[in-house]
Amino acid sequence: MTVNKARRLEWLRALRRFKYGVKVRAKLGVLDTLCKQVAEERLGRSLWERPDWSHDRWITLLYTSIRDNEFPPELLLGFVRTAEITFTFMTPNAQPTIESVLMAVEGVLAAQRTPLRTKFGVFDEAT
After folding, report:
1. Which of 108, 94, 84 is nearest to 19 (CA)?
2. Looking at residue 117, what is its pLDDT?
3. How far apart are CA 65 and CA 122, in angstroms?
4. pTM
């Protein structure tokens, strides 16, 4: 496989815009509201839900959100639900914070980098 430079540039620009948009939503309090919602859902529960980011449904949602620079509530809620499970699993009283959500976003994007770039068409088939 070879890298399509034009599509790679498009991917990098879209990714930068998306990350900036998540940070803006954090500053505006959108993520804080979702963190409180998830914290209330988790009260008294020993098992917490989180998305399976390797599943095609979540990859596609993430891809279209990055491509279109959109932030659907389902996606943001998925990041919030991933936050504390990923980073402080052994601390059952820990609830999502904005910082942990931003770290979760970075972690998910890093982990799903190859499938996302494939969907963006960054890789050309060798001929």
Report:
1. 108
2. 96
3. 17
4. 0.88
- Residue 13: partners with Cβ closer than 8 Å, 6 or more residues away: none
**pLDDT digit string, tens, across residues 62-91:** 999 999 999 999 999 999 999 876 444 455
| 56-68 vs 113-120: helix crossing angle, rounded to 10 | 60
**Cα 93 to the center of its chain, rounded Å:** 23
Look at residues 87, 80, 67 and name the one whose alpha carbon lies nearest to residue 25.
80
Tally Cβ neighbours within 10 Å of residue 31: 25
State the residue range of the domain holding 14.
Answer: 2-124
For residue 113, which of 37, 53, 57, 44 has the smallest C-alpha distance?
Answer: 53
Q: How many domains does the chain have?
A: 1
Q: What is the pLDDT of residues 27-45, one digit of tens each?
A: 999 999 999 999 888 887 7
